[in-house]
């Protein structure tokens, strides 16, 4: 049989189960589970789309214990409640005719505290993983090791109940099972550690219990696989001979396959780098007859049929396909038809390929995405040298451009580089090249460097476009013309630009900062709307009228009621507009001043701002909308009662003129302009602000220059819960999730769910002028933001209330009494003492207990320019300024004397869409 026939013809495993071919989908992290590790609908569809012609789908690893998550969005099999969701995946895969195998694991010391509620990870020994910032784990006691084996067994039982055809024990990638076998991570002196024989005990025990469970609950067709990493680099560490020893032991107990975990299936040793022999060749030569009976599967770098055939020629019996299965859900059909495949994904194809949003943003996939949006841009080919400046470095980067794409970027060889920068530069470089755009999601942990490189690449592109224009006989001084200019790239500006473009207008966005996103990117809690589809799905009863009344009350009845009615009316449509643009806010929570859950947020309960901006930018890129960064609008050109265009100033101090019939000002508020804040509210001198540096109110001044009226300028909101050393906002979602506020005296002092103005005033009235947001494990589990605060080091935690009180230097008896009386109020759903009516979610009684020290900070400026319901800017006499539109925080009146949490995001999207619609119509009438 040729290897081609071999690959596609049936293959029988040692237990007699027949696979229809030798191709398996490799288990790959998708980060698409719910916050609690249950299965999402997207995940089911992702696997369904990839099943069919492929023989077997190995579903991504499931943690067997809730301390075992090794990455965000991981799915779990740690309790029976998870079975239903997993059963949906198994059924989806099997319905297409493929076998469904589930991988099970525990991250051990590779779990980060922020993923497991700030707890310390567990491991064979209390030794941190050899990587920066790794937490030191707690060593499992002998009893806990036995419990862990039981947990693996329970995982197997659940996999069987969920209908899987088999399990793959994840003994690789330095997770817990490998940690037991490794002399590096296992330095125990009981029967689980020490000699190689002892270290092999745990992996063998996991296999034993897997067999036991399979015997008890499944039939003999149940597949049992084992994945292993053949070597470790560390000294001491697992060597290939050790691996062979372990595999022989596993094989003797019976296995249906072994899965060689390598980045590249034909990789040689990483320890002995002088030996180029692929490890699979050595394995085939060295294995015993018993081991030779166990089929072995290769993975890594298999994209085309020839790669798979080569792997089989080297001795693999089966191949697992990773990234190629993400890019080509029908990979097996394609290679059967002899297609030649390239490993990239067209940026417009996410839905068509059924790739869940979190996976789309995962670096593995991100690196395969090619942005198709820049293909119409024309560059002058050449190398453009630009300065890259982050707080720690000043370097040069050479940006090579082809006529239609970014060909390469390289740091200047002579520059003063440090290792940290070069490492993140490599990731940044590949993201920019794959996206073919400087607008990519920043690299985690290297945000400032990402922004600096983005800026340099944007500048190089601008220079090259200029050069191309000149070459084509154009003139730089000749003003460019657009239908609509949008000033500001926060949520309001982006929504407006997208809508205007969809109405057929030619749109330009001008942003004075180096990055897109404005203050919106910092938004945490969500978007309010009443009578939405998502509320209906969750059975939440709400009405637009109630939303209106509560917003009006929260705004101290100072709101512009005409605008407010427009806001309330359009809110559910705006939620749908976002969903239509693949920005789904399907989870719902509550904020202060509201009586109903109506704050819409991402399904994984993460902060809304980053999610929103990332989604809007993808829409922007798809539409090819021009963006000028580092460029301020200094003036709106206005004459004869109509907008003529804008004047710009870029950071090379060039003054540029743009012609346009409509201008949408979406420049945000002025919380970061201390002079302006103090001018209107002297008592706020010295307050920190939660806002980004660009929130200076320049749009108000620009519009005032052409005669715009303003309203409510003195209405400035201070947010009650701001971490003062970093000015970081502690989201209202934490209180909405069940947290309370406690003073240094250990007492609650006010209804935490009151509006922001009142809560702030009561904190300032405390003698110490600060307070603590206090919550427990239950609140943390339901709010992703809490883990972020833990990771940022804001959170003080204690195993018991007394322990926490001691750490806060608080009278512990008073604190205990406070918790006790709050818990009684929760039980009764009646907070007689402070009148809290909402978010009495659960008693605060499950350790660990947490506290964050906070005080108020300047957060939102409710005042701004006057507009009508068509978002037209009005002058002091309420007359329309022709062609001038405004949306978002730059506008005054909607929120009255106090903005409700969740209403800013609603405001920017609702009025952003309206402004886009109206400005486009006006320009093209
Ligand atoms: P909103 O929430 O109303 O959308 P944001 O604060 O999120 O407002 O965004 C406003 C954006 O406008 C910010 O990115 C800010 O840097 C930008 N901006 C402010 N003034 C100007 C200006 N004069 N020219 C260009 N951009 C501006």
TrEMBL record:
Pfam families: FAD_binding_2, Oxidored_FMN. GO terms for cellular component: membrane. Keywords: FAD, Flavoprotein, Oxidoreductase, Plasmid. It comes from the Bacteria. Residues 392-464 form the FMN-binding domain. Its cofactor is FAD; FMN. GO terms for molecular function: FMN binding; oxidoreductase activity, acting on the CH-CH group of donors. Belongs to the FAD-dependent oxidoreductase 2 family. FRD/SDH subfamily. This is Flavocytochrome c. It comes from Rahnella aquatilis (strain ATCC 33071 / DSM 4594 / JCM 1683 / NBRC 105701 / NCIMB 13365 / CIP 78.65). The lineage of its organism: Bacteria, Pseudomonadati, Pseudomonadota, Gammaproteobacteria, Enterobacterales.
């Amino acid at each position: 049989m040729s290897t081609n026939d071999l690959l596609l013809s049936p293959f029988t495993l040692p237990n007699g189960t027949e696979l229809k071919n030798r191709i398996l989908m490799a288990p790959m992290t998708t980060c698409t589970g719910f916050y609690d590790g249950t299965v999402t609908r997207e995940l089911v569809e992702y696997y369904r789309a990839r099943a069919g012609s492929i023989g077997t789908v190995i579903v991504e690893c499931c943690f067997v214990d809730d301390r075992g998550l090794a990455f965000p969005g991981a799915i779990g099999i740690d309790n029976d409640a998870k079975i239903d969701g997993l059963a949906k995946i198994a059924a989806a895969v099997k319905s297409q005719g493929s076998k469904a195998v589930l991988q099970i694991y525990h991250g051990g010391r590779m779990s980060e505290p922020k993923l497991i509620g700030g707890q310390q990870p567990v491991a064979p020994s209390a030794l941190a993983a050899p990587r920066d910032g790794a937490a030191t784990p707690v060593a499992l006691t002998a009893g806990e090791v036995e419990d862990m084996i039981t947990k693996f067994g329970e995982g197997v039982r659940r996999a069987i109940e969920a209908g899987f055809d088999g399990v793959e024990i994840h003994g690789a990638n330095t997770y817990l099972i490998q940690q037991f076998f490794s002399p590096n991570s296992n330095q125990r002196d009981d029967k689980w550690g020490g000699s190689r024989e002892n270290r092999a005990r745990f992996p063998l025990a996991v296999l034993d219990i897997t067999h036991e469970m399979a015997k008890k609950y499944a039939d003999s067709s149940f597949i049992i696989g084992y994945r292993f990493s053949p070597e470790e680099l560390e000294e001491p560490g697992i060597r290939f001979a050790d691996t062979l020893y372990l595999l022989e032991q596993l094989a003797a107990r019976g296995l249906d396959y072994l899965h060689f975990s390598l980045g590249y299936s034909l990789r040689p040793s990483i320890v002995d780098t002088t030996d180029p022999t692929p490890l699979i060749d050595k394995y085939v030569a060295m294995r015993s007859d018993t081991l030779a009976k166990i089929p072995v599967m290769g993975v890594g770098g298999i994209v085309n049929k020839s790669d798979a055939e080569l792997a089989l020629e080297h001795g693999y019996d089966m191949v697992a396909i990773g990234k190629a299965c993400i890019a080509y859900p029908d990979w097996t059909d394609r290679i059967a038809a002899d297609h030649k495949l390239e490993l990239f994904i067209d940026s417009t194809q996410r839905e068509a390929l059924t790739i869940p949003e979190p996976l789309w943003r995962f670096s593995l996939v991100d690196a395969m995405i090619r942005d198709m949006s820049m293909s119409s841009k024309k560059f002058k080919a050449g190398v453009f040298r630009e300065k890259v400046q982050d707080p720690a470095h000043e370097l040069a980067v050479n940006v090579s451009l082809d006529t239609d794409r970014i060909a390469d970027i390289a740091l200047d060889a002579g520059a003063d580089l440090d290792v940290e920068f070069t490492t993140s530069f490599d990731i940044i470089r590949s993201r920019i090249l794959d996206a073919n755009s400087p607008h990519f999601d920043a690299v985690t942990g290297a945000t400032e460097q990402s922004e600096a490189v983005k800026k340099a690449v944007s500048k190089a592109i601008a220079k090259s476009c200029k050069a191309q224009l000149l070459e084509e006989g154009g003139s730089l001084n000749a003003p460019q013309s657009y239908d609509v200019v949008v000033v500001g790239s926060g949520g309001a500006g982006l929504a407006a630009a997208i809508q205007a473009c969809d109405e057929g207008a030619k749109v330009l966005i001008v942003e004075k900062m180096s990055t897109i996103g404005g203050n919106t990117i910092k938004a945490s809690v969500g978007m309010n709307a009443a009578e939405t589809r998502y509320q209906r799905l969750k059975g939440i009863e709400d009405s637009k009228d109630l939303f209106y009344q509560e917003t009006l009350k929260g705004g101290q009845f100072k709101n512009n009621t005409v605008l407010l009615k427009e806001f309330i009316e359009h809110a559910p449509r705006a939620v749908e507009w976002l969903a239509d643009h693949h920005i789904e806010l399907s989870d719902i929570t509550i904020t202060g001043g509201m009586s109903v859950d109506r704050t819409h947020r991402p399904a994984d309960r993460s902060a809304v701002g980053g999610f929103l901006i990332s989604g809007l930018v993808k829409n922007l890129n798809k539409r090819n909308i021009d963006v000028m960064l580092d460029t301020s609008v200094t003036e709106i050109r206005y004459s004869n009662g109509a907008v003529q265009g804008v004047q710009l100033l870029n950071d090379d101090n060039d003054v540029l003129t743009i012609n346009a019939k409509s201008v949408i000002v979406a420049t945000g508020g002025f919380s970061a302009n201390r002079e302006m804040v103090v001018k209107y509210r002297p008592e706020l001198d010295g307050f920190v602000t939660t806002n980004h540096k660009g929130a200076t109110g320049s749009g108000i001044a620009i519009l005032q220059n052409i005669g715009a009226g303003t309203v409510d300028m003195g209405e400035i909101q201070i947010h009650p819960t701001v971490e003062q050393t970093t000015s970081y906002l502690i989201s209202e979602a934490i209180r909405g999730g069940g947290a309370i506020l406690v003073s240094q005296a250990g007492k609650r002092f006010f209804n935490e769910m009151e509006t922001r103005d009142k809560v702030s005033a009561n904190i300032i009235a405390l003698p110490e002028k600060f307070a603590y947001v206090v919550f427990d494990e239950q609140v943390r589990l339901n709010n992703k933001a809490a883990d972020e605060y833990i990771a940022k080091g804001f959170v003080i935690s204690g195993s018991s209330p007394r322990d926490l009180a001691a750490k806060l230097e608080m009278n512990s008896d008073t604190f205990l009494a406070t918790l006790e009386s709050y818990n009684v109020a929760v039980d009764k759903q009646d907070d007689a003492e402070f009148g809290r009516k909402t978010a009495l979610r659960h008693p605060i009684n499950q350790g660990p207990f947490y506290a964050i020290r906070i005080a108020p900070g300047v957060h939102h400026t409710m005042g701004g320019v006057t507009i009508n319901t068509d978002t037209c800017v009005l002058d002091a006499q309420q007359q329309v300024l022709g062609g001038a539109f405004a949306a978002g925080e730059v506008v005054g009146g909607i929120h009255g004397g106090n903005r409700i949490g969740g209403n800013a995001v609603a405001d920017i999207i609702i009025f952003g869409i309206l402004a886009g619609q109206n400005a486009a119509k006006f320009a093209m009438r």
